[in-house]
Design brief:
- With 364 residues, the chain is of the alpha/beta class.
- It folds into 2 domains: 4-232, Hypothetical protein, domain 2 (Endonuclease III, domain 1, Orthogonal Bundle), CATH 1.10.340; 238-357, Nucleoside Triphosphate Pyrophosphohydrolase, CATH 3.90.79.
- The chain has helices at residues 4-13, 15-29, 34-37, 41-50, 56-69, 73-78, 81-88, 95-108, 117-120, 128-139, 148-158, 167-181, 187-200, 219-222, 281-285, 313-320, 340-352, and strands at residues 163-164, 231-232, 238-246, 248-249, 252-257, 269-270, 289-297, 300-308, 325-329.
- Strands 4, 5, 6 and 9 form a 4-stranded antiparallel β-sheet that branches. Strands 3-8-7 form a 3-stranded mixed β-sheet.
- The chain is elongated and about 75 Å long.
- The site of iron/sulfur cluster has 15 residues, from helix 11 and helix 14.
């Protein structure tokens, strides 16, 4: 049995055969995704930003809608931030949309786009992985992509049982091997093939080793233990409870818009927190519970309880003076950018309540 280091050297020595097997499989089996079938620099950049935190199937309808609305860098650069966020609504991690918008504006000021990974890493939201993906796909740059799928494939090929603190540490560990295996003739296709192999064949659970095109190079399958690799520390999940207020007045719903500089939800609307209304949690929780829902944000699981709050007329007037709080008529909900979970919950609450139950605010 070879050590992971010896196995890596053995694999590198057979890299031409490895690349041929991988490439032949990819040409026949890759998914015909829209950014692959009709590629351009712009479509590659948009798809890479969308896929940073989102599964392919989820991103697909957003990608099509985005391309119809903002078909090139010039259109994106000229769009308002509100329009960009509205198009991104439901994908989450909104800093990606703002970074993509700023990237388009910065790129529009250049005579030509950079063609190296280093040049792309100067743009907002572009780290080593995204820079390698964009430049290898669009400019054939010799830069290996190491995402979670590639880490899994390489760890298994080598039966590498190194324990990693997190996925970034694992990506750094495997970067030299990924570089060494990169096809010099077709770096972009090779990168896509490695990621596609991880997504479709070398899956986290139940990898399809019997039909894997690189099975003969793989140490983990010889040990009959592919799922033992890679060894990543489990993420600690933080659990939090949040109270939200549901305030209606004359056919309008009160929403809170995050400040434009807010890190996570800039300019997005959500149902207000008690503190947004100058109330304490207990006061809001005394109102009728309309729904209790869960949402996940990175390593946090948040349970949000939404309570109907009866506001007096003077409270309504006072809140109207707060620019971050906005009374949105039901017909205006489609126009504003609302966080994905809150749009779903607002619709569910509206659908589930009889019309006689819909006026919540009271007068003095
Ligand atoms: S043989 Fe199995 S474990 Fe090895 S790369 Fe292929 S799918 Fe992954």
């Amino acid at each position: 049995m070879r050590s992971p280091e010896n196995q890596a050297q053995h694999l590198i020595a057979r890299q031409a055969a490895f690349q041929r097997a991988l490439s032949a499989w990819y040409r026949e089996h890759h998914r015909p995704l829209p950014w692959r079938t009709n590629p351009s620099l712009y479509r590659t950049v948009v798809s890479e930003f969308m896929l940073q935190q989102t599964q392919v199937q989820t991103a697909l309808p957003y990608f099509e809608r985005w391309m119809n609305a903002l078909p090139d860098f010039a259109a994106l650069a000229a769009a308002s931030e509100a329009r960009v966020l509205k198009l991104w609504e439901g994908l989450g991690y909104y800093s990606r949309a703002r970074n993509l918008h700023r990237l388009a504006q910065a790129l529009s000021a250049l005579a030509a786009p950079p063609t190296t990974p280093e040049g792309w890493q100067d743009f907002p939201g572009v780290g080593p992985y995204t820079a390698a993906a964009i430049t290898s796909l669009a400019f054939n740059a010799r830069a290996a992509c190491v995402d979670g799928n590639v880490v899994r494939v390489l760890a298994r090929l080598n039966a590498d049982s190194t324990a990693f603190r997190n996925s970034a540490a694992a990506a750094r560990h495997f970067a030299p091997l990924a570089d060494a295996l990169l096809s010099p003739a077709e770096p972009g296709t090779h990168n896509q093939a490695m990621m596609e192999l991880g997504a479709l064949v070398c899956r986290r659970h139940d990898p399809a080793c019997a039909t894997c095109p690189v099975r003969r190079f793989c140490a983990a399958t010889r040990r009959k233990a592919p799922e033992d690799y890679p060894l990543l520390a489990r993420k600690k999940i933080g659990r939090h409870a949040v109270t939200r207020a549901w305030c209606e007045n004359q056919g309008r719903l009160l929403l809170h818009r995050a400040a434009s500089g807010a890190r996570r939800l800039a300019e997005l609307h959500e149902l207000p927190l008690p503190s947004d209304l100058g109330l304490n949690d207990a006061t809001v929780r005394a109102g009728r519970l309309l729904t209790r829902q869960k949402r996940g944000i990175t390593n946090h699981q948040i349970t949000e309880s939404i309570h109907a709050v009866r506001l007096t007329a003077s409270q309504c007037r006072r809140l109207t003076a707060n620019a971050a709080l906005r009374w949105i008529p039901w017909s205006g909900l489609d126009v504003i950018a609302l966080s994905g979970p809150h749009r779903r919950w607002v619709e569910e609450i509206r659908q589930s309540r009889p019309s006689s139950d819909r006026v919540v605010s009271a007068v003095e």
